[in-house]
Structure formats: structure tokens, C-alpha cells
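Researcher: I'd like a structural prediction for the single chain below. Treat it as a standalone chain; there are no partners to consider.
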Amino acid sequence: MKNPQMTTEAVELLKRLIATPSISRDEKAAADVLEAYMKEKGLNPQRHGNNVWCSPPTPEGGGHSQWETNEEHRVSPPPSGAGGLILLNAHIDTVKPVAGWQHDPFTPTIEDDKLYGLGSNDCGGGLVALLMTYLGLIGSNGLNGFDGKPIAPHFIFLASCEEEVSGKNGIEAVLPLLPPIDFAIVGEPTGMQPAIAEKGLMVIDATAHGKAGHAARNEGDNAIYHAMKDIQWLSGWQFPKQTELLGPVKQTVTIINAGTQHNVIPDVCTFTIDVRSNECYTNEEIFAFFQEHLTSELKARSFRLSSSSISAEHPFVQACIKEGLTPFGSPTLSDQALMRFPSLKLGPGESSRSHTADEYIKISEIDDAISLYTKLLKGF
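Model: Treating it as a single chain, here is the predicted structure.
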């Protein structure tokens, strides 16, 4: 190991988190674990719901924040000359375990270099690696910071909740409580390659209408057939604008429902459209276009999860490139969609392991991530 102390502590903390179920919207116990751990390390964590964060400590590396939060959770402006702020963020919630697990998803199990458990890869590995990096920055955990000088006044560590469901009580509720952020690293599993763009998400509920009738007679107006025409159009349509990083907009019908019994012509057919937008179109533009071309009644659940990207010329992206990393575009959504400042995804593990049976993170990946985070942030 390159970082034996930090990696060992990271793995032990991750094992505690795996053993603490934290399905989205039920993350209190996991937030309690993290809050207690931060206090053990001399930090002064703040909490809003099941989100836990550490505001910048004093320049001397103490555990108390320079920027006090009042009882209404409003943070005062940063002091003059504080410099840019970097947010280190990962989420604590998980999806529900899928069928097919050969290991107990809530019992952390180490086999060779692999740590198995629900949330280990998405995104427990990134969470604990970022936290250990943060502890190094402030000279805690027996570490001395960079060049013996803690620099954490320039960093905030945030463990957020409800990421897997894009819940409004997650990072969206916390960002207004923080000082202005200049840049963020989101610790999603990317193989420690920088994802400098990600697709947005919009879910549309569609309803096709017809007229009920007896299936044995030539009567009624089958709503399924109207839905089929719209679904066929959706399957063949491609928006003309696409990019090298994110490719085309992708729309997929994922749920369909109609009918009450075999001998009744259905008068209503509902279906759901999963839309993954690129940076060329807003969700509102896509929705308006679908309204023009589909006969079904459409209702978007939200427009707020837009595509996001950061310039390849951003200094941190350039620092990644100098380290031999390769920027790419990610098809999966994260809390990055709710950030209104430059950000990228960079974390240990592989996205292909997320939401699968026998999810795992490699201990060596956590160790490598701590080293790379530290090197990049030191240079940045």
C-alpha cells in the first residue's frame, strides 16, 4: 500500500457503512456513523437531515469552522482573502439490493483485494477515499497536510444523501447552506478517470387515450394502438445534435400499462419515457419537441436534472491530463446535475459494478485514489 494508515482506516470505515443499511431516504444510521467518525477525528461536522459536511477549519488546522452557520442554517460569507473553495462530495445512500447476491449485501466481506458489500463501489470507495484525503489536508489523522501546512480552509467535505433518487432533501438542500463553491470533485466510480460531462435525465409519463368497447365486436378505439404509434416514433427518432463526449440524446420507453381484462378494449394506455439528454438540448426543449410530435398526453416529472459539463481547459482537468488521465463523457447521472459551478466525477471503482449483485470495490483502488486525489489537489 502507498498509504497504509489512511487506506486501512478507509476500509474499516467503509465496512461499518456497508453494515449500516442506507437505502435512499433512509440514511440516518449511516449519517450517524459518519458524523461520529468525524467528531472522533477532531472535526466539527455540520448536519442537515442526513447530509453531513465539514466546513473549512481555521488556517491553523483546528476543528472549528471559520464560517459559522446560524440557527437558520445560513452560512456567512467567506473571510476576505479566503481563496477559492473546492467541494469534495460523495453520497451515502444506496439502491435496494438486487436479486442474485452470493454474499450478504450488508455483511462486508474481503476476499483477496476485493471488499464486497452494497454501496462499496457506488460510491463508498469514493466517499472514504475523499474523506481520508480531506483529513490529510487538515493535518488530522496523524498526517501533516501538504508540506507540513494544512490547507483545508480551501476545501469542504460533504457526504450527501438521496443521490440515487435525486431527492430534494439531498445535496440540493445543502448547497444553499454552504459558502460559494468554485469547483467540485464528485467521487462516483469512474476508474479514477475524469468524467468531464454527464448526461441529464428527464422522466416523462405519457397517456394515450381511446374509447372502451367489447373486444368481440368492431367497436371502441384501442388506446394501446395509439401508444404503439408514439412508441414506434420514439424508437426511430434521433436528435440531430450530438457531441463527441456524450453522443446523442437517448430516449427509451421503459414501462407500459393498459387494459383491465381480456375482452375489453382499453381506453387508456400509459407508458414511461426515460430521456438522457446531452449538452446540446435542455430538458424543456426536448419535452416541447415531443409534445409537437406525439399524440399522447405528456407530463414531465421534473426538468431540473440537466446535462452538465466542465471545460477541458479547466486547470483541474488539465492537471488530470498531465497525470496521464483521459477525460470522457459519462452516460450516468449524479448529483453533479444539481451543481451550478464547475465540477467533474472522479472516483475509484467502475460504474459497471454499480447496482449489481455482489458489488465490490478493490482495496488497491481506494489506496490509489487517496494518492491521486492528494497529488492532484496538492498541485491544484
